[in-house]
Design brief:
The protein is 47% helix and 3% strand. It is built from eleven helices and four strands, in the order αααααααβββααβαα. It comes from Fagus sylvatica (Beechnut).
């Protein structure tokens, strides 16, 4: 590492990391599944250069986690990329090309082996397999649930489920094939009158087009949500135990009458206060919890 690199400011180091350290391995990590140990080594080298560029070895002080630095600037990070997540996102791009019908010798070879689960926008239904392809937005995995789960399901084109003259679903046929929940989801799907070609969209991007950024954001969001849920569970469990202990002492030592409703209300307020400190986005300005997933402590 030359003296010029050691003399760089924080802004210069960030620019150098994004334009060199994160850009150079892009081709290699976009074509194969890189081992985790290699990705961790790459991240470790970049972390050291960011926090302590003057030394190649030894300990150094870290003021923020690598995960925090890898968040977007809008979310308080620096826009760095975790090597393994970047690798997975670039491989997902190849998968998207396979599923979306990109025409090349390489993609035709990959398409014969792999299939990606995005979501089809139904047109004429000729290219959608009812059981194998993702095409129902309101169902988990975008695929319907058969009425008889143990019965083998032969390939069936969605176009065969439509009345071509009136452009409506063949409800009597669907009732014999899928469960009630899947049937209700089918009936929500708009049927185009002009019957265009079926189209595959990327559900993680509002535009419907695949982007590496949206794939990385999806990986980070699932990780952050998991950590948030675990923290919520721990807070809820700890405060509940504390309240039980306080009530027990009041009854045993002071022989006080207990107002159960007030205790539960107080517990709820304290839990919300701690959750708000943990993540301010969980509670809006009116004090209402939004996008909150509450699990029992036993689910940790």
């Amino acid at each position: 590492m030359g003296w010029r690199c050691k003399a760089l400011s924080r802004v210069g180091r960030r620019t150098l990391i994004k334009s060199v350290a994160l850009a150079l391995p892009t081709y290699s990590i976009s074509t194969e599944d890189v081992p985790v140990i290699v990705c961790n080594k790459m991240d470790s080298t970049i972390r050291r250069f960011w926090w302590n560029p003057k030394r190649d070895k030894g300990k150094y002080l870290v003021w923020k986690s690598w995960e925090s630095l890898c968040r977007s600037k809008e979310k308080g990070g620096l826009g760095f990329k975790e090597s393994k997540l970047f690798n997975q996102a670039l491989l997902a791009k190849l998968t998207w090309w396979v599923a979306s019908g990109r025409d090349s010798i390489c993609i035709r070879a990959l398409r014969s082996k792999y299939k990606m689960g995005a979501c089809f926008i139904m047109g004429n239904g000729d290219s959608i397999d009812m059981w194998k392809d993702p095409w129902v937005p309101w169902l988990e995995g975008f695929t319907p649930i058969p009425l008889h789960a143990n019965t083998p399901q032969p390939p069936l084109r969605v176009s065969n489920l439509l009345d071509s003259s009136n452009r409506i679903w063949k409800t009597n046929v669907l009732q014999e094939l899928v469960d009630s929940h899947s049937l209700a989801a089918f009936l929500k799907i708009p049927i185009p009158i002009d019957a265009p070609q079926d189209r595959l969209i990327w559900t993680l991007n509002p535009s419907g087009c695949f982007s590496v950024k949206s794939a990385i954001s999806s990986c980070l969001a699932s990780r952050i949500n998991l950590k948030t849920i675990r923290a919520q569970n721990s807070i809820q469990f700890a405060l509940t135990l504390e309240n039980i202990w306080i009530v027990r002492n009041q009854v045993v030592h002071n022989d006080l009458k207990i107002n159960h409703l007030a205790i539960v209300k107080n517990l709820e307020v304290r839990v919300l206060e701690h959750w708000h400190i943990l993540n301010p986005l969980l509670v809006d300005d009116t004090g209402v919890v939004s996008n909150l997933v509450v699990h029992s402590p036993s689910s940790c």
